[in-house]
Amino acid sequence: MAVTQSEIRSGAYYDSVVLMHLQRSLATLPGVLDAGVVMGTGANKDLLEQTGLLSPEAQGAASDDLIIVVKAGSEAAAREALSQVDELLTKRRSSTASRRGYLPKSLDSAAQALPTAQWVLVSVPGRYAAGVAREALQLGKHVFLYSDNVSLEDEVSLKTQAAERGLLVMGPDCGTAIVNGIGLGFANRVRRGPIGMVAASGTGLQQVSARIHQMGGGLSQALGTGGRDLSEAVGAVTAHQALDLLRRDPETAVIVLVSKPPSPAVAEGLLDAARASGKPVVVDFIGYRRAVRQVDNLHFATTFDETAQLAVALAQAGTGSAYEEVEARAFAEGQRYLRGLFSGGTLAYEALLLLQDYLPRVYSNVPLKKEDRLENSMVGQEHTIVDLGEDEFTVGRLHPMMDNALRMRRMQQEAEDPEVAVLLLDVVLGDGAHADPAAELAPAIEQARATAEEAGRYLEVVAVVVGTDEDPQDMAAQIEKLRQAGARVETSNDAAVRYVGRLLRGGQKGPSPAATAVPLALLQEPLAAINVGVESFAGSLESQDAEVIQVDWRPPAGGNEQLMAILARMKQRQ
Q1: What is the DSSP string of 475-503?
Q2: Tens digit of pLDDT for each residue in 176-188?
Q3: Would the pTM count as exceeding 0.90?
Q4: DSSP secondary structure letter of residue 446
């Protein structure tokens, strides 16, 4: 009989990559049937419960506690597995130290060790991220703020402080950027060229830049802002700074603006600045409709594909695309619903928008209309699009671009639903992403299709692969593995979503940025960075021959809020 035992560690901090490796290492120990290593948030407890790993001790854990759960064939095997946790963690830390050598303990010491670093990459838990970002700004560094769960108040404060100093804060929740040919976070390897991007969207930036590459074009820079930058509260501070940089950049001939649904007033303010840039600007503000397709130097697009096509055409290297008719599928009676499982939030947004042309209603945890919000993000409801990269799924858990475990479980869950006809998913390649996502997803696709077939049903699986032929995962090999598993594969989110749709079809100006311009040298000097948090991001930079130093970061005062506040006040007085 299976035995489940757990261990709760209060105030423990480990890189989410380390937690993923610990979970996998525990699961391979003798006698262990399954393992879970997560932070004690409500969403993570729900996931543990769904997989039969929620013990009474884990149920009582606080959100800042680390939960380690082992299900084994015997009590002795469970105890033995838990007794090896510290040894496994020590091995991981020793491996990192031997590979990277000296790891500074603070930003100050890291800046002294790598004085050429212009950037600090921050991917620590959200409750600490603003503090690390402020410290980076005080050191005169630009910030790539990958961390989510950062308050709106902190975002406004950080960006205001940065703008006053002529510094950039990309984020929070900024997943990708390309600066001087070097990808930050989740970035595709795209050839250099005359097209510059400003994006309040991570996977939106990736999809457009990848499609530009596929169409023969290239990028000068791709600057992320974080998804809330074009909100009323933030006022597009980073977008204005990035637009101004590209306006002054002699290597940028065409500018692309991409955003999740913006505040109308803030969008108009940014468009005024774009119109004054003197360069052709392609605009794809998702859900933002204009009565005309061109105003002066502004060219409006409605999909990622159209955005890439317009940009490449304006840079005099464009191509077109066409949509094919789809063949009817032999779905069983009652099979009629779509379940989309996305790792990219803006890809999910675009899917929701495109599906308005085909399906009467689509539920989501990131709905276009509040009445279409899922009752429970863990369970599909009629036609459903789920963004698995939302905060509710990523607190204390690795982003789905790096860890496919949650999505694979959901694929099997949806395949067991007799009303589901189509699974739609994205596979995002590039530096920082999973090294071989198809190796995990292809067997899961085969299993899902086999589950449906055993029940007398046909399950269509459609995958959009976001990447380039220069990405480390080998894009062609990824596509082939997915096709061999029975999936239909597209490299265009537009094409994938429209195929699914056809298959199932039966004001006031925004505030101006601070006057201090970001020095153009940022786009001209070789990139060097300090990485605080997810160590695989440092590995990505190393693989691109960029200088980088990893900080051996720990929460200040052991995560004690009162002591942290006291230390912050003492530091301000120094």
Answers
A1: HHHHHHHHHHTT-EEES-HHHHHHHHHHH
A2: 999 999 999 999 9
A3: no
A4: H
